[in-house]
Specification:
The chain has 221 residues and is of the alpha/beta class. It has 12 helices and 8 strands. Helix 1 packs parallel to helix 3 and helix 4 packs across helix 5. The structure holds SN-glycerol-3-phosphate.
Length: 221
């Protein structure tokens, strides 16, 4: 399973990427707007840190403008993935980009029927929004399982399931159980995934016991 960070925070991206567990980045217009800097600069900085896929979303809602924006975005870096909304113009653009071998991420997916359309349009990734479905009283994780079951029946569907709108580590764990190919999460969720009080307590104990011996591994080498 791949892990993407859903963020445009350069410092956090650099810190977490250094650990070696971040495979890519997703952004959306809200995330980029929060950064409050020219988007082009942010995207270039992200692509310089992360060699994996970096999703950048179009803003237009009509097909001709969306295609123009998509082609500009696709030129930003070799690892840029064009993010498109799950609408008829979005999927029309997706189909054209996939024919040109440009990577795509179809976003705002809230149903299995929408995920089928994204696969038929040749999307590289489809992003079902787990947390936002939970917010309206539906089980977002069930959707991940449904999409997995459908995609697995059709070898010509090559779309990766990118579990998005992840709010906590249990969403990541359950998405993994459901067979999501990727989970994109805010930096805070990746940080939470490391945490367990027994890890901290165990490490304290090991350090204290070792200190009593007066030995050091480095000095003995
Ligand atoms: O980038 C898409 C998605 O991950 C947004 O998440 O938390 O705003 O629902 P959220």
């Amino acid at each position: 399973m791949q892990f993407f960070l859903d963020s445009a925070d350069i410092q956090q991206i650099a810190e977490l990427t250094a650990i070696g567990l971040v495979d890519g980045i997703t952004t959306n217009p809200t995330i980029l707007a929060k950064a409050n800097r020219p988007y082009l600069q942010i995207v270039k900085e992200i692509c310089a840190i992360v060699s994996g896929p970096v999703s950048v979303e179009v803003i237009a809602t009509d097909h001709p403008t969306m295609l123009k924006e998509a082609l500009i975005i696709a030129e930003l870096a070799d690892n840029v993935v064009v993010k498109l909304p799950l609408t008829p113009p979005g999927l029309q653009t997706c189909k054209e980009l996939s024919q040109r071998q440009i990577q795509t991420n179809v976003t705002l997916c809230f149903s299995a029927s929408q995920a089928i359309l994204a696969a038929k349009a040749g999307a590289t990734y489809v992003s079902p929004f787990v947390g936002r479905l939970d917010d309206v009283g539906q089980d977002g994780l069930v959707l991940i399982g449904e999409i997995r079951a459908i995609y697995d029946q059709y070898p010509d569907f090559n779309t990766n399931i990118l579990a998005a709108s992840i709010r906590h580590p249990i969403h990541v764990v359950e998405s993994a159980k459901m067979g999501a190919d990727v989970a994109t999460m805010p930096p805070s969720v990746l940080q939470q995934m490391f945490k367990h009080p027994l890890t901290d307590r165990g490490l304290e104990q090991f350090s204290a016991d070792w200190a009593k011996t007066g030995q050091t591994i480095l000095a003995a080498a």
